[in-house]
Amino acid sequence: MAHTHALDIVGGESALGISIRSGRDLIAAVRHGLPVKAVEHVLDTGRMTLAELDLVVLPRKTLSHRRKIGTLTADQSDRLMRAARVIAAAEDTFGSKEKAATWLRRPTTALGDETPLFLLDTSEGALQVETLLGRISHGIAA
Question: Does the predicted TM-score (pTM) go above 0.85?
Answer without folding.
Answer: yes
